[in-house]
Amino acid sequence: MTLFYADDDPDEIELFGYALRAIDESIEFITAKNGEEALVILQLNEPPTFIFLDINMPRRNGMEVLVDIRKISHLRDVPVMIYSSTTDEKQMKEAVKLGATKFISKPSSVRELSKLLKSVLGVSPGGVA
User: Fold this and answer.
1) Is the pTM above the cut of 0.85?
2) What is the rounded distance in angstroms from the CA atom of residue 94 to the CA atom of residue 33?
3) Distance, CA of 33 to chain centre
């Protein structure tokens, strides 16, 4: 399983990686620090199993990246999660309308994040399902 995550906040990326390793160390974790970099990495590599995008990033925000991902043939069917601290209902609906598989609000603790990721990724207690 490969998971791609784009976020301009290095602390968020570190926290996300920590939660992933706690779930299953065999999950490959690829990151980008802005939307432009995310598109380059995604276009040049094999599609990941899941894509997580923060909304508020420089150079291209998560919504713009989502729209472009849905235009790229080898990425079109990859589940894309908008992963953001926003609670704006309008923005959440817009993300799903643009092709997001799910809109996920960033949890406040590593424990909550691990639980959320297990659910989204379909991970059983013993590892990847």
Assistant:
1) yes
2) 23
3) 12
